[in-house]
UniProtKB/TrEMBL annotation:
Alphabetical list of SUPFAM superfamilies matching this protein: P-loop containing nucleoside triphosphate hydrolases (SSF52540), TrmE connector domain (SSF116878)
Domain of life of the organism encoding this protein: Eukaryota
Pfam families found in the cross-reference section: MMR_HSR1, MnmE_helical
Name this polypeptide is given: tRNA modification GTPase GTPBP3, mitochondrial
Organismal lineage: Eukaryota, Metazoa, Chordata, Craniata, Vertebrata
Source organism of the structure: Acinonyx jubatus (Cheetah)
Coiled coil: none
TrmE-type G domain span: 214-381
PROSITE patterns in the record: G_TRME
Amino acid sequence: MWRGLWTLVARAARGPRSPRPCTRQGSGVPVPGSGATIFALSSGHGRCGIRCGIPDLKPDSPPSANVLRLIGSCRFLTPSRSLLHVPPPRFRTPLSTPRLPHVLPGLAVLCYPEAQTDPSRWSGRGLNHPHAQPMAQRRQALRQLDGELGHLCHGWARTLTKALAHVEAYIDFGEDDNLEEGVLEQANSEVRELQLALGAHLRDARRGQRLRSGAHVVVAGPPNAGKSSLVNLLSRKPVSIVSPEPGTTRDVLETPVDLAGFPALLSDTAGLREGAGPVEQEGVRRARERLEQADLILAVLDASDLASPSSCNFLDTVVAPAGAGSPNGNSQRLLLVLNKSDLLPPGGPDPSPNLRPHLLLSCLTGEGLDGLLEALRKELAEVCGDPSTGPPVLTRARHQHHLQGCLDALGHYTQTKDLALAAEALRLARGHLARITGGGGTEEILDIIFRDFCVGK
Ligand SMILES: Nc1nc2c(ncn2[C@@H]2O[C@H](COP(=O)(O)OP(=O)(O)OP(=O)(O)O)[C@@H](O)[C@H]2O)c(=O)[nH]1
Ligand SMILES: [K+]
Ligand SMILES: [Mg+2]
């Protein structure tokens, strides 16, 4: 095996014999045997963490070695398999250690070489490669992958199992004089601490899900403010039609984007105004409906037209009430953007100094975009939670369901006076946690009783 390995390393070290295009079979390019390195993806083309390729991508063939060098440091384990550690250039977070050649990293990782070859193209302005998963999501996945949330749940499970064991021991041996004082009080205080920890975590749950599914960012404003121009700029593709004609956008156009490293669902909407025709009015109604669901509103006005009735109406009906709490209970976040700053007199005064804090932008020249992205980063870190700091947030509805079930059962425990019912409530609570962490069997309870109390031996 070693001889084969050394041969492999020697050949790889010799470097490419003849540059061979690394091509994908079946795309009309040279067929096998013509020297081209062929590989075909046998996994779906969608976004995924790993992909499977046919074994023709040998680590020792020059283009493949180039691909491997491009992607990350590659250690050959055996002639047919290599361990590829992919430390993406901008983020020192190892994303995957796929084994080659049978498994290729998926788009979420392969895109880094593009960022690596032209980082300014994607990462300089807080915008990432259209295919790469937002960094925040990758960090979140990693933290769940390396079980940070799992460790937390296991800790809660240990506390709960101990409290249950102590309550069971108290029921069975309470009268027994060698059960020390305060066994029940200890169990009660542990349950109270658990309730506080779970409650705090569940309050964070919504942020975790936003991080997973993307925060809803809704672009709204009067007609012709430049909403569609801004949506196209932030999503780096022509999502919406832009035209000098007011009332161009009618439907709500939603597109997933990576904004400053956070996942977002960016919605373009119809310009808000009264008195338009029936179709446009339906567009206005849908725009208002989407505004209700927004995690963050990007309010866009034409900086050169702030005195118009539609701008004043928008300021009164959408901008002013935002932040003061929205119908869905939590206060909506809003960033006010004064677009078309290029139409203002150069170096002229702020168009409306008594307006709430706002950002000047020109979708035409790009002036002000960096400031907007920085403001978005701050807002989205609040909306989604910053996955690299603070407790790991819940991103799976299943985790949330069982933790909520556990918390509800703990509530029954604290309310009941009947010890048998109290023990049953703790068993139910432990059962919910067990669906996340496993374990929680009777033998675990008995082990603790025999360990902590000299009974039943
Ligand atoms: N000078 C200048 N023109 C802009 C800017 N942004 C957008 N425009 C122009 O303003 C007009 C309206 O832009 P849109 O993006 O269609 O505006 P909108 O808010 O989506 O319009 P509706 O969909 O009709 O509500 C177009 O002609 C754009 O080219 C800017 O920053 N500066
Ligand atoms: K327009
Ligand atoms: Mg539009």
